[in-house]
Design goal:
By secondary structure, this protein is α+β, with helices and mostly antiparallel strands. It has helices at residues 31-41, 50-53, 87-90, 97-100, 116-122, 129-135, 140-156, 183-188, 197-212, 242-251, 350-373, 378-395, and strands at residues 4-8, 15-21, 58-62, 64-65, 68-69, 74-79, 160-168, 171-172, 219-226, 256-261, 279-281, 291-293, 301-302, 305-306, 311-317, 328-330, 337-339. It has a five-stranded antiparallel β-sheet with strand order 8-7-9-15-10. The chain has a four-stranded antiparallel β-sheet with strand order 1-2-6-3, with helices on one face. β16 and β17 form a beta hairpin. α7 (140-156) crosses α11 (350-373). It binds flavin mononucleotide.
Length: 397
């Protein structure tokens, strides 16, 4: 894996850290590129108060000079504005339990559907805050920062990454017959990031009801990656297949419980003739070797490799686990039945999940791009990509 990233940071700690290693030198990169995606992740009807407090902005600590990457690890810092309200609670300094008494905001009524209880037992902690601060999806801010750099790299190679919401809490959004040329521009203009304005009104009404009832909602987003050349990834080994790599990346997003590539589960219900995409000549379609598929039910992947058709991945998120009308749990100090703690929370975060899924897709596809075309600099990578495109275009058509 030439492109590697890691994140650090607790939800109410001083900051989040993101380190991305393997970016070639000479990629134009400004804080504004990263900040634009961080802002997109904070949007969405149904978010809680936390997103009003935070105004996420990146500080580059390394790997970027004069607006260009250096080829060295890119380290990024994103400060938590809310930290000032949590300093005492999250203070790393040792504390005198006898003098200070019980810690403020200690959690011993673990929330069903969260890491709270399993983490508390596994890591042998008394306060589930030691677990939930890291399990919180606030961590995905750092992923979106890394993903924004991957998006920049892909865009220099003619590849775009976008998403839109296709389902929320039982309501389907219709995919427009003609997809907009700039999917993200259209989706970002909508409070739920959906392309179906009529369904959106019903979804908003449903979120309002869920909020009044102290309940939460899940949904599905579709990620579309366009402009990929044929032949990224590989069929030769399980861990080089792109469908597997995308599945792992998407399922690592908190609350994501399902991933479909192309028509996904629907393919299992149809016959082969209704599923597989026929191949035809398409002179001028150089990225796919002058051929194309008449349909794209495979979602742009065959044999773990890109086909040159748009990559289509659908990502399903369960409803938010923290309910304002809490579910039953136990008190881990006494074992007595109790109501789960109601930590401040979103009613739904499916629109934000789509932006995070874009980031994960961008990281996987940028990794596959560097794997195939290599290069220590962007110039070298682009030269190798261009030579490959010229070669495959010369084979057919
Ligand atoms: C963008 C985003 C925002 C989230 N916001 C919340 C939230 O406000 N409250 C909550 O309980 N869970 C939230 N979650 C989900 C939890 O982080 C997740 O369910 C939990 O960590 C347990 O992981 P699991 O659902 O994958 O088992 C959010 C997830 C995402 C992707």
């Amino acid at each position: 894996m030439p492109l590697r990233f890691t994140t650090a940071g607790e939800s109410h700690g001083p900051a989040l850290v993101s380190i991305l290693e393997g970016v070639p030198a000479g990629l134009t990169l400004l804080a504004a590129h990263v900040n634009a995606d961080l802002a997109r992740r904070q949007q969405g009807y149904g978010r809680g108060r936390r997103m009003q407090i935070e105004r996420d902005e990146v500080e580059f600590l390394s790997g970027v000079r004069a607006g260009e990457t250096l080829g060295s690890p890119v380290a990024m810092l994103i400060r938590n504005r809310d930290w000032k309200n949590w300093q005492e609670i999250m203070d790393p300094a040792p504390r005198d339990e006898d003098a200070a008494g019980e810690r403020k905001r200690a959690v011993h009524r673990p929330r069903p559907g969260h890491a709270d209880l399993s983490g508390l037992l596994k890591y042998d902690r008394d306060d589930a805050r030691d677990i939930l601060e890291r399990a919180s999806a606030r961590e995905t801010t750092a992923r979106v920062a890394a993903g924004a750099i991957a998006r920049r790299l892909l865009s220099e190679c003619g590849v775009t990454v976008a998403s839109h919401l296709v389902h929320l809490g039982g309501i389907d959004a219709q995919r427009p017959a003609d997809m907009p040329a700039d999917i993200n521009a259209a989706a970002d203009a909508s409070p739920l990031r959906t392309l179906d304005a009529e369904a959106e009104q019903r979804m908003i009404a449903l979120i309002d009801v869920a909020k009044r009832e102290g309940n939460t909602l899940g949904g599905v987003c579709e990620v579309v990656v366009d402009g990929l050349p044929v032949g990224l990834g590989s069929h030769v080994s399980w861990d080089r297949r792109l469908d597997g790599r995308l599945g792992q990346a998407m399922l690592s997003i908190p609350a994501v419980k399902g991933v479909e590539i192309g028509i996904g589960f629907e393919a299992a219900r149809r016959t082969g003739a209704e599923v597989h995409d026929e191949i035809t000549m398409a002179p001028g379609q150089t990225r796919s070797g002058n051929v194309r598929r008449k349909t794209n039910r495979a979602g742009g992947l065959e044999g773990g490799m890109t086909s040159g058709e748009p990559l289509i991945v659908r990502v399903a998120m369960k409803p938010i686990s923290t309910l304002m009308r809490p579910l039953g749990t136990i008190d881990t100090k006494t074992g007595v039945a109790a109501e789960a703690v109601a930590e401040r929370s979103d009613v739904t975060a499916v629109p934000a999940m789509g932006v995070i899924a874009e980031a994960m897709a961008a990281l996987v596809m940028a990794d596959a791009m560097i794997e195939k075309f290599g290069g220590d600099s962007m110039n070298e990578l682009r030269r190798n990509l261009d030579a490959y495109l010229t070669h495959i275009a010369s084979r057919l058509g």
